[in-house]
Specification:
Immunoglobulin-like, Jelly Rolls, 2 domains, 8-stranded antiparallel sheet, 7-stranded mixed sheet, 5 helices, binds calcium ion
Length: 399
């Protein structure tokens, strides 16, 4: 849950300390920055008419072409101005800002930017007035456009407070979020507000007791194929049964997976030479199709080939990179016992533990693809083992 906690900073200090206001004062700057929208190409020629907005009414109408593509209307305003007025058609000044200076990985912060309309035109959604991400991108806000609600009009000298949910990526670093008013397809205008946001990631663990079908924090998807849930966990009842969990964020760096297994009985449950019962992969393919790719994975494999033991396999980068080893082939597994499998990895090595005891280390360097998909019961290479009950899955991402 930690990763969902907001890191907040007082709005006022952001305004005083961190927020850089740039661009013109008396004459809101017209920045000849391409506006990459469907309306862009047709309207670019209008950039010239900024000072020409002498006739208030006429130019107001002209702005309507932010919706459409006819730039003929707009050009009509172009050189006809010169009414002695300095007030531009489109003008804006920043009144108040609440942008975060720090965010934790994955956190969302509802930021606000309040803008005053210092131009002659009235802002509406239909006329294409928006708060725009400078350079048509924002690392914390995908669309790079914040729209006015339908029906809202911002008359000259009125202010409007835009709200935008900024979400930090799942990597350490810094992100520049910067915003300016845009008359879509016509021009960018007014003051720019910008803030460099420091993003810090701390270790977090995403757990699923595997007692029902719900998707838990930290997971984006839970694909259940067969088996049965109970308070004890999820049990395979057929050798096709599988749960595939997709982590919300791929684990590019260090991490671990831990899971409990009960009712594990090699003597009665092995139905084939090989079953891969606990696995992680980069993608949801989970089969040998990934051997020729740069995928990373690891497997816990059981089956008649391994007597009462199991095999551990780990590949940092495609099939040729895998290492594997056999373990405890003389084990006696009391089905009433609960066994804990734990796999830990970092950028150099991957380690296996069983019931808290260290078992093995393989090299895991050269991994270019992150681990994101967990397969329980079986992957898509071999059939599953019928009978084990899996519970208390926890995946930890470190940074
Ligand atoms: Ca930007």
């Amino acid at each position: 849950m930690d990763r969902f906690r907001h890191t907040t900073m007082p709005a006022l200090f952001l305004w005083l300390l961190g927020v850089a206001l740039t661009s013109g004062c008396s004459e809101p700057g017209e920045i000849d920055r391409p506006v990459k929208t469907a309306h862009d190409d047709d309207a670019r020629g209008l950039d010239d008419d900024g000072d020409g907005g002498g006739g208030g009414e006429g130019s107001g109408d002209g702005s309507g072409d932010g919706d459409g593509d006819g730039d003929g209307d707009g050009d009509g305003d172009g050189d006809s101005g010169g009414g002695g007025e300095d007030t531009p058609e489109d003008g804006a000044e920043v009144v108040a800002v609440d942008l975060p200076t720090t965010l934790s990985c994955g956190d969302t912060y509802t930021a606000t930017v309040e803008i005053r309309n210092t131009g002659l035109a009235t802002w509406t959604r239909a006329d294409g007035y928006k708060l725009g991400g400078v350079d048509d991108e924002d690392p914390l806000y995908g669309p790079a456009r914040v729209l006015l609600p339908d029906g809202v009009t911002v008359e000259p000298d009125q202010t409007y407070m835009f709200e935008l949910d900024l979400t930090a990526p799942m990597t350490n670093g810094e992100a520049l979020t910067d915003w300016q008013m845009v008359h879509e397809g016509v021009r960018w205008f007014g003051e720019t507000v910008s803030q460099n946001v420091v993003i810090t990631c701390s270790e977090f663990t995403s757990c699923d007791p595997l007692t029902d079908s719900s998707v838990h924090d930290g997971y984006a998807d839970k694909d259940i194929r067969g088996g049965s849930f109970s308070a004890a966990g999820w049990q395979t009842t057929d050798n096709d049964d599988q749960i595939r969990l997709e982590l919300t964020a791929p684990i590019a760096g260090a991490g671990s997976l831990e899971i409990d297994v009960t009712n594990f009985d090699p003597d009665s449950q092995y139905a084939g030479e090989k079953h891969q019962i606990i696995n992680m992969y980069t993608t949801d393919i989970g089969s040998q199709d990934v051997f020729e790719t740069d995928e990373a994975w690891w497997n816990i494999r059981t089956g008649t080939n391994y007597a009462t033991g199991f095999k551990f396999l780990a590949a940092p980068n495609g099939g040729d990179s895998r290492e594997e080893g056999r373990f405890i082939e003389d084990a006696s597994w009391d089905p009433a016992d609960t066994h804990t499998f734990r796999v830990e990895w970092d950028s150099a090595e991957i380690h296996l533990y069983l019931d808290g005891a260290y078992m093995e280390t393989f090299g895991y360097a050269g991994r270019v693809s992150p681990l994101q998909h967990v397969f329980i019961g079986k992957d898509n290479v071999y059939s599953g083992q019928v009978g084990p009950i899996y519970s208390d899955l926890c995946v930890t991402q470190s940074f």
